[in-house]
Amino acid sequence: MPRRIIYTSALLALWLVTVAxxxxxQESLGDAARRIRSKKGxxxxxxxxxxxxxxQAVSAPSVNADLNATxxxxxxxxxxxxxxxxxxxLEQENFxxxxxxxxxxxxGRTRFPGGGWKLHTFYAAVEWPKGQAPxxxxxxxxxxxxxxxxxxxxxxxxxxxxxxxxxxxxxxWRARGDGNAASVTLEGKxxxxxxxxxxxxxxxxxxxLPAKCPEWYYVMLQVGRVKGxxxxxxxxxxxxxxxxxxxxxxxxxxxxxxxxxKWRGKEGDTEKFAEEQANHAGGKPGDxxxxxxxxxxxx
Length: 299
Hints:
The protein is globular. The longest helix has 21 residues, at about 185-205. By secondary structure, the protein is an all-alpha fold. It has helices at about 5-15, 30-40, 45-50, 60-75, 80-90, 95-110, 120-125, 135-155, 160-175, 185-205, 215-225, 230-245, 250-260, 270-280, 285-290. The protein is about 65% helix and about 0% strand.
């Protein structure tokens, strides 16, 4: 069978698995597949060697393996299994597959049967060291190094940048601990501030990329909250977030957390905000926004 027919069939199958809505400024899986076909192998070259090297042929089995992996992960409907599949791709450093899966979830705005966004679960799968607790510093170093390699190999990847920023945020909380402010050591506070700064730097860098991601707003709202931004500044960022995608309820949750007495608000602010947002959205989308408050919010 001619190679062109093989490629066309594979791309058509991939297209049927994903949804093409909201593709402005997003790379479709068809585009990604064509990019894989034409450029695979370039990411391991230095800029100088890319200039001098001749284009290399790409085997059909290699392209098909990436496409099959992307389709397999994207088609998974069980959240736990999906998390495992995404994490496996990270462990194998199949960075292009990860980018293509995230692009599909972002474009299709796909959810699990319970209503959770697959894109949010995607990031949760790659932001934390794999394995059972306790997580060691060596585990963290391995995860962060892997995410840095992803960023280096895919410099235009909004997904890689957001994943690294989110990992730095979690790494900061590891240094601080989960206790109240009085329980934080001076060294813990120093490391927390240092790592939060790294998270913010990654997110600021990623915002310059042409592609955007709703998870970016969710993570940046967290950074702003822990850095002590004023409510007005957090509210301005939240408005930009809902302008991008009003149904990505995770940044609704995050902003609601900022309105608790523990952070920037007073009693009743969170409940008032949740009700206002739910009424504004109306119907089922509004019900999805009026999410039960985590225990942390009511401490």
